[in-house]
Amino acid sequence: MISLRGTTQRADATFRVVAIIAAAMVLVILGLVALTMTVRARPVLSEMGLEFFTSRRWSPADSKFGALPFLWGTLYTASIATVLAVPVSLGVALFITQIAPPWLKKPLVYVTDLLAVVPSVVFGLWGILVVADKLGGRSFLTAGVILAIMIIPIITSLAREVMETTPASDKEAALALGATRWEMITATVLPHSKGGLVGAVMLGLGRAMGETIAAALVIGSALGQITVYPLASGNSMPAVIANEWGEADELHKSALIALAVLLFVITIVVNLIATSIVQRSMKRSGGTA
Amino acid sequence: MIAELPLDLRAKPSWRRVKSQIMIGLMVAAVGLVLVPLISVMWSVASRGAGVAFHGFPAFFTDEIPVISRSEGPGMGPAILGTLMCTLGATLIAVPLGILGAVYLHEYGGKRKFAKLVRFMATVMTGVPSIVMGLFVYVTWTLRFGYSAFGGSLALACLMLPVVIASTEQMLRLVPPHLREASYALGATKSRTILTIVLPAALPGIVSGSLLAVARAAGETAPLLFALGLGATSYNAHFFTQINTALSQQIFVNATSSFAGAQERAWGAALTLVMLTFIFTIVARLFTARIGRKK
């Protein structure tokens, strides 16, 4: 036996441990986020109890904090955004993967990716000073439209990846049977990528719920609005946090942190489900391809 | 499997063809719909920002921010410095950590349960709202050590970490196994193989992925709101102390202002920020193009 123990061996082991620690940081950070923020949120939760989640009254002046209107605003604007973004994203993804001639694919991918590079605050600035006027002021609808534009690149690029895993033999078989291109898509591409597309849409939804700055600028910052009227101005959880933080006292800050915890929990759940759906469908199609 | 698929070819051929054309037309329309906001944003930022940013060049990029937001005229220098400091700090924290994490996942972890868990949670972590990360850093760092650019770096690093891990692992996957085997055959240890063979081979891809993460981080606003403090208008090159500011924060604050001067500065800052993020993105693409050629 040759003995390989020695300084090189120890260096090797050290490197491995350092790498493990680096990887574990992901879990450490997520754990710390949940832990430290829940601790900070406790004052308002013990003060308000369950009313924090059910009350419609948010009045920092007399220490009343009910998060329901913001929960509504978050879900409502994210839903508007998803409904608007999904058909467009799927259309673009289908066009890029199934219809576009090869020379056009790359530029189109670049263009949709470019949309993801524009900083969220720039979309907000554009939304407040350009778009809001055309959509009748700051409102749920304006926020929904801006959020839709921001999640289109995410949904499109994931949808593209999933659609590209459709086996060429399936597509060619459909075409050989005399199917038109649209029939080929409905018969092979869509059934094949269904699971992945659902996951992609959910990831987009999660992103829309957490998107802060653009929403904070264009949603209108009205208190206590729970309405389906899209032109009403309202508020969402991340928007309230960003807009009220500057002038918040201790209990108020605790309430805003509690909102962040609520937002964290909701987006984590949505992302957990979405990620496992995407990964499962990717694995399945990876196996057959 | 085709027999089970919903493929009904009995309808009238002409109608089937027309329907297909209509659907393709809708897809083209979707592409057009994506171009509209992109062009509109770019046009607004360029047309409204250029006049402000390049008036009396380089005053806008070097002057301090007016203390009274009502006043007109240039000044985003401190915000540019703040953005660069926060982003650079975040890069120095997140990129080495992310690369090491990815090295563990691909070179050591493989299909182990722990590696799978980390990989899964890293994907989930990319979906954590940036404002949550900002508050997290406020709670754990800023409350104890006060406002500083470093706090901003920490928050941005938390956002960059999972992105760097994911893109680096993808690049490590592209390194052919025979390179590693050749290195082992020569008697190199695993860590030496990784540091001198695997990482250099994957370097262009890693740089490209990291730069895209940097570009994303430079444009972030929400995480900085809590870490930098409000109201900084003059240069602060201290990394660990005192309130600071950033381009994104200035845009956010000035966008809601009713004063024309402040709004103009917001557009100028937006143009500066967009140019900054685009430079990072283009450089990243150049690195990606290099990998493409090598393959």
Written description of the protein model:
The complex is a heterodimer of chains A (289) and B (295). With 289 residues, chain A is mostly helical. In chain A, 51% of the residues are buried. Chain A starts with 6 loop residues before the first helix and ends with a helix. Chain A has helices at residues 7-48, 51-54, 68-99, 102-117, 120-134, 140-164, 168-176, 181-210, 213-218, 237-244, 250-288; strands spanning 58-59, 64-65. Chain A is 78% helix and 1% strand. Chain B is mostly helical. Helix content of chain B is 75%, strand content 0%. Chain B contains eleven helices and no strands. In chain B, helix 3 (77-109) runs antiparallel to helix 4. The longest helix of chain B has 41 residues, at 13-53. The radius of gyration of chain B is 24 Å and the shape is globular. The two termini of chain B are 35 Å apart. Classes of the chains: A mainly alpha (289), B mainly alpha (295). At the A-B interface, helix 1, helix 3, helix 4, helix 5 and helix 6 of A face helix 1, helix 3, helix 4, helix 5 and helix 6 of B.
Structural class by secondary-structure content of chain A: mainly alpha
Report the radius of gyration of chain A as a whole number of Å: 24 Å
- Gyration radius of chain B, in Å: 24 Å
Per the principal axes of the C-alpha atoms, what is the gross shape of chain A?
globular
Specify the number of helices of chain A: 11
Count of DSSP helices of chain B? 11
Low-confidence stretches of chain B: none
Spatial separation of the terminal alpha carbons of chain B: 35 Å
Strand count, sense and barrel status of the largest sheet of chain B are: none
Largest interface: A-B, 97 and 94 residues
